[in-house]
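dude i think i finally got it to work??
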Amino acid sequence: MPVNVSADLSILQLVLNASLVVQIVMLILAGVSFMSCTYICVKWFAVRDARQKTDSFEREFWSGGDLNHLYQSAVNGRHSAGSMERIFEAGFREFTKLKGQKGLDASGVIDGARRAMRATFQRELDALEAHLAFLASAGSVSPYIGLFGTVWGIMHAFRALGNVGQATLSSVAPGIAEALVATATGLFAAIPAVLAYNRFSHDIDRLATRYESFMEEFSNILQRQMR
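look at this
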């Protein structure tokens, strides 16, 4: 007659009946999953905001407006400015300052503006890439943490079977299922982190390319103004 063990194999019962080590593993993975979801939400809004502000500033910049007006707008709205706007502000501010100094030729002024833009670009890129390292680590390490819990749970189940005279499905299934829940929890934490990391890395790389292209094009504009 088949043995009905479904009542003992609910997820909640498996977690509650698991060994202490497996419970700790699942608790760690639950914390990692919660932090990953938090960072994913924060990063999604940050990348979307950066892309929208970049699109808006590019439209305004290439519409042929006065650079001094754009600079004043960037300074006045510094707290709400996007990354490209702050790069423009840093470059134009340095250009204006160096242009009025004696003893500097055109190449020196342009190089100074480029260095200012490059420094701001690096700061903006670092801000966009914040928490990506955690998502990468969560995606790569979580399955191994879950696997450790699974191995430990299976070892615990087999040790318990040593005290049983005859191994049956009802005695084997709960222990194995408890161990496999740890693997499932590890995958649950890892998969969203990997998908989010790949997506955000791609989006940030595209934004970085746009920023670098803008710096080169803006440098050419400043160089023409020096003639």
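The helical segments are 11-17, 20-61, 67-76, 83-99, 106-128, 132-161, 169-225.
im so relieved honestly
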